[in-house]
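User: Quick sanity check before I run a bigger batch. Here is a single chain. Can you write out its predicted 3D structure?
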Amino acid sequence: MIEYLSVIVGFLVLALLLGLGRILLGPSSADRMLASQLFSTAGVSILILLAIIQNQSALINVALVLALLAPLTLITFIRLRKKSL
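Assistant: Done. Predicted structure follows.
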């Protein structure tokens, strides 16, 4: 079971690396924003899986805080985008 979860964590890290490429090379700021949302979603998933693998409940709390803070970046992006238009 732990090996299976470790493989999933590896795929999520690969998704993060692809998202990093989108942030660096993205043609528009909206693409970059969506990639940063991918970072938060994959980050929460990785933290929850690591909490299960390592049997550390504190990582679940960190994942929940990250999940609560992630939408704030999107809201801030939208507000800044409205001001620039």
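The first helix runs from residue 2 to 25.

User: Great, the batch can go ahead then.
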